[in-house]
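BUG: 3D viewer hangs when loading the predicted structure for this chain

Environment: internal workstation, default settings.
Expected: structure renders.
Actual: progress bar stalls at 90%.

Input used:
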Amino acid sequence: MVNSTDTQNHRVVADIKPETHARLVAFMEERNIDQSTAIDFIVSNYLNVPPPAAVRTGKTTASPSAERAVPGKEGITQEQLVAILNCDSGRLTQIRDYPVVLTDYTRQRDPQGRAWEYNSDSGLYSII
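Structure tokens produced before the viewer hung:
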């Protein structure tokens, strides 16, 4: 690690797999952020430290019917969560087995800032 000359931040250089890089690029595009901010956000989230200030939630307003899909103890279906988050069902399918990514993705999109988890046994999503 080397300190950047113009900030108090540290520079990190790493080699990552093409699949990981593709996911990083998608993450950056979804949030309209640069690579440095994206990596800082991901690592901060993983290590449970405050994320960089430059990351904004960009929350969307869910449809009224989505707000009525209130989760019970048993959870809700993917279709219901898609309506709440106003997101793509395919994206949820891609990330549901990656708890840290799913938590971040859902917290950023949930109108109430809630994080969700997936239960592969039941096939349902519930609030963490």
